Amino acid sequence: MSGVGGSGPDGRVSGASTVRNGDEGGGMSGASPYRLVGARPEPGFEVRVDGRPVPVVPGQTVGAALHAAGIRTWRTTRFGDRRRGLFCGIGVCFDCLVTVNGVENLRACLTEARPGDEVTTS
Amino acid sequence: MTAHDTPTPDAGGDGVGERAVGRYDLVIVGAGPAGLAAAGVAARAGLRVAVLDAGARIGGQYFRQLPEGFRAARPGALHHGFSRFVRLRDALGDADILLGHRVWAVERGPGGGFAVHCLEGREERARTVAAARLLIATGAHDRVLPFPGWDLPGVMTAGAAQALLKGNLVMAGRRVVVAGTGPFLLPVATSLAAAGATVAGVFEAGGRFALAPQALARPGKAAEALAYGYRLARHRVPYKGGRAVVAAHGDGELTHVTVAKVDADWRPYRGGQETIECDTLAVGYGFVPQLDLPAQLGCETSRDAAGGPVARVDRHMRTSVAGVYAAGETTGVGGADLAELEGVIAGRAVVADALGTPVAGDPADPRTEARRRRLAGFARALLRAYPVGDGWTSWLHDDTLICRCEEVPYGRVKEARDLGAADARSIKLLARPGMGWCQGRICGEAVARLAGEDPAPPRRPIAQPVSLGDLAAMDGRDEWKET
Amino acid sequence: MPDVVVIGAGMIGAACAYYAAREGLSVTLVDRGAVAAGTTGSGEGNILVSDKEPGPELDLAMLSCRLWTELASEARELGGFEYEPKGGLVVAENDEVLRALAELAGHQEKSGVVTRAVAADELADYEPHLAPGFAGGVFYPQDAQVQPMLAAARLARRRPSVTLRTGTEVTGLLTERGRVTGVRTDAGDIPAGAVVNAGGTWGGEIAALAGVDLPIMPRRGFILVTEPLTGLPSHDASGAPGSSVGSGPLVRHKVYTAAYVTNVASDSAGLETSAVVEATQAGTVLIGASRERVGFDRTVSLPVLARLARQAVGLFPALADVRAIRAYCGFRPYCPDHLPVIGADPRVPGLYHACGHEGAGIGLAPVTGLLIAQLITGAAPELDPAPFRPDRFAEAAA
Ligand SMILES: Cc1cc2nc3c(=O)[nH]c(=O)nc-3n(C[C@H](O)[C@H](O)[C@H](O)COP(=O)(O)OP(=O)(O)OC[C@H]3O[C@@H](n4cnc5c(N)ncnc54)[C@H](O)[C@@H]3O)c2cc1C
Ligand SMILES: Cc1cc2nc3c(=O)[nH]c(=O)nc-3n(C[C@H](O)[C@H](O)[C@H](O)COP(=O)(O)OP(=O)(O)OC[C@H]3O[C@@H](n4cnc5c(N)ncnc54)[C@H](O)[C@@H]3O)c2cc1C
Ligand code: FES
């Protein structure tokens, strides 16, 4: 796992992406996905990623919640120790495999997050 | 129906509802525009219909819906033609909608009909649904091509960026480059920009105006293209043709990309390179139809204008296997409008075939037929206007991964070719690209092209990973004759 | 003009080309597809002595096993082909089967097979994740495995005097006064001193081009492949149980039940399965293989896959939670008497056959190549090839 506010197993902290899972936009226009659709999300919940809380809007996938929290990788490949996260976004590429509550190899992009989920990165 | 319940032909149409026992007149795999349109037609005609989709909500890719939890006041803001989705949704009648169902195999049932084997939910509960007829509307996935750095976190498909936004209200990144080829890049870039991302550029490897002649021949599409162009301009997003992202860079995560000026074959010109900072690259080179299920049943395929395999159907969307229909991207990539129309046509054919009557509508309904011809013609023109140039292979280095799953670099593919692997299959056998988790869905196109072939129709007896325990529990069902 | 044309660049053809070249002959190896594109590319790579009853096939296997060891050390410098002498563990469901197995092992020992009886309470030392309740087993340290496609490709490329011509279909044989003098292909004629039919499951069709009959039929087999497991398989060179019992790979050796032995020798056309479970260097577990005679029908058979899965889970209960991601099938070249066809065809001078190895063609490839090379050069064969002679079927019919 790596990303803003968290350091990966290798201690690397990356500042590339700071999109939070909330009404935070970018650019100078003040636009945001939430404003675009007029979202007033119901109270969310948290999942834990290696023990660290990550906010979730009900219905979001584990992959989306992590990505929104700036966590862009949660898996290391078998041979080359390459970091992987979302790639195809629709369950086809299996790059985003993740361990949730001890169950290995779930596709993060298809797996809807549930309150109390424990995500472990590798 | 419980797990591993067997298809029971003619068990009667009692007990409508999620767990209904017995066989459906029609099972539709895929709740995108094609599947939904067909379901509406068939359900209205009184057939017992089930729509299965792996996703948590109906809509498919084009009409991917936000979770309720967002309580969006304007859910249509992320969509083009949201009212059409509302119409499709409201026309579903009493069709059963089985969401979170991943179909891993379809097979012919013992007394005719089909058994559709699914895994339900995160727990992957095994479940079998029985169908007299089957419509396969599984859509497509992004086509991707390898280039140095394409497996860095932060590089994703154009469709993934779109799915994140439409389905999760998450921006793929703050500073995004959109690249690849085809008209799909435009909606991806405009929705990202509208959502507040800085789109650092849209790079179309083909010519910038490749589409112009076709678009002019279709005023509606020309207006759409103009609208995208206008919106890109409003967000000050540069859109450049003849440019390709030939490398992605970053120490552990994406920080910048190299954009090269490319010739008509996509070979980079000497010197014409620039570096662009970005945290995300959304890249797509068109779409690949998902044909695993029709292939399992032995449905014949044909080739689209770009040489890719598609399910072969007659004008009523019947495949070569009796009782099996296909609609939408599975019959050739043509976008949501065509998918929906094909769904309608398929739905009518299923109804007619189920009742033993001639297909209603066409030719008594020349408008449908004419519209389909027009949309299909436009789809073909698009495929021709945005071909994948051969020059992408010149972007590769020996250590560029071709297969992400098995981490097979280009050098090993070349070595396999030197060892006598003269075709895509033997490259796979010798060097393992395509043997990984995704079963070649991602690398298949590249490996085929590197072997100098058009991609072959898939052969995936297991379309979704299934536990050996679930598979084992299917052993010994009596109606499986071992002959 | 090459000394020899070998038809078929599968494991057998590659081995024939390799050994012929080693004997100093120039070889053209032709295949209508790519290298290893036939059955070699759709099977597994077990090199087994454990599954063979004493007799001519076991003698072949013993010699071949030794040749594989030599090839493997030679191949290391070529990049290798994942040769792994990991050993096989055959387990018995009950005391009766165990007795039969022990008896077989005793006979096998006389042919030079090394066997180790494993008591019920020792099974876990070999395979910590094996299901409880087996009566015992026999461990065969000589059983090994290779990646067959890579092995075929590397052997075919090993000798400079072998020319590989892929995408070239043999459509006829050239003859002169009853003697085969080369092959006709869709890319022109290739005259040669001798022609080797290494057409595998299609060997009968090639024989027919020469007007002779070889009764080779397809026997279908399915294989299941799992998701890659964390913790790559490893073994120690002796093939003895590792010290790290309880951790490490889920599956350490080739493991199968003794029922396999009876299946291999079966004449039934019906489905027979007896799962052989093993881990690969890629991290996946392979579960093979079914046997049934259904012609060249590729249609997926879920019942067969379900049966294989059940047997695999029966051996290793932990596999129940492991996902299968892939399945494929191939067609073994099958002769009615379960023996391969190896040797000169007395009915057609100049034509040699090397086909019909059924489910053992990978294991038996080196010995087949060696014998063919010796027969062509007139050297004394290392082993009496009489039981494998091509005209034996006609005699049986007469
Ligand atoms: C990621 C992605 C995003 C896209 N976004 C857009 C967009 O924003 N705008 C646009 O114009 N076009 C988009 N497209 C193009 C899209 O292909 C068409 O617009 C349109 O959605 C096709 O309709 P369809 O009904 O043929 O299939 P789809 O809409 O793709 O629907 C197919 C459905 O089948 C389901 N499915 C597939 N396989 C299985 C299985 N084995 N078991 C169960 N369910 C299964 C999928 O979950 C999916 O919901 C996108 C394509 C992709 C791949
Ligand atoms: C499921 C399964 C599991 C197996 N497991 C094992 C195992 O664990 N261990 C083992 O030892 N064996 C195993 N086998 C058996 C083994 O795969 C075969 O015995 C072996 O591959 C046969 O090799 P071959 O070279 O004779 O045939 P092939 O590999 O089929 O080669 C024959 C070649 O001849 C070519 N050819 C045919 N006709 C022509 C023509 N007219 N012109 C040009 N070329 C032609 C074909 O294209 C083909 O490439 C298994 C088989 C199956 C199906
Ligand atoms: S990318 Fe090659 S198998 Fe997945």
Description:
The complex is a heterotrimer of chains A (122), B (483) and C (398). Chain A is mainly beta. Chain A is built from two helices and seven strands, in the order αββαβββββ. Chain A has a domain at 45-120: Ubiquitin-like (UB roll) (Roll). Helices cover 10% and strands 21% of the residues of chain A. With 483 residues, chain B is of the alpha/beta class. Chain B has 13 helices and 22 strands. In chain B, the strands form six sheets. In chain B, strands 1, 2, 3, 4, 5, 6 and 19 form a seven-stranded mixed β-sheet that branches. Chain C has an eight-stranded mixed β-sheet. In chain C, strands 8-2-1-12-19-18 form a six-stranded mixed β-sheet. In chain C, strands 9-10-11 form a three-stranded antiparallel β-sheet, with no helix packed on it. The two termini of chain C are 39 Å apart. Residues 232-246 of chain C have low confidence and may be disordered. Chains in contact: A-B, A-C, B-C. Chains A and B meet through helix 1, helix 2, strand 4 and strand 6 of A and strand 8 and helix 3 of B. Bound molecules: flavin-adenine dinucleotide (2 copies) and FE2/S2 (inorganic) cluster (FES).
Provide a concise account of the structure shown:
The complex is a heterotrimer of chains A (about 120), B (about 475) and C (about 400). Chain A is mainly beta and about 120 residues long. Chain A contains two helices and seven strands.
How do the strands of the widest beta sheet of chain A line up side by side? 2-1-7-5-6
CATH homology superfamily name of one domain in chain A: 2Fe-2S iron-sulphur cluster binding domain, sarcosine oxidase, alpha subunit, N-terminal domain
Any idea what the CATH architecture of one domain in chain A is?
Answer: Roll
Distance between the first and last residues' Cα of chain C: 39 Å
Unreliable spans of chain A? 1-20, 24-28
Bound molecules: flavin-adenine dinucleotide, FE2/S2 (inorganic) cluster
Give me the CATH fold name of one domain in chain A. Ubiquitin-like (UB roll)
How many beta-strand elements of chain A? 7
Mean pLDDT of chain C: 90
Order of helices and strands of chain A: HEEHEEEEE
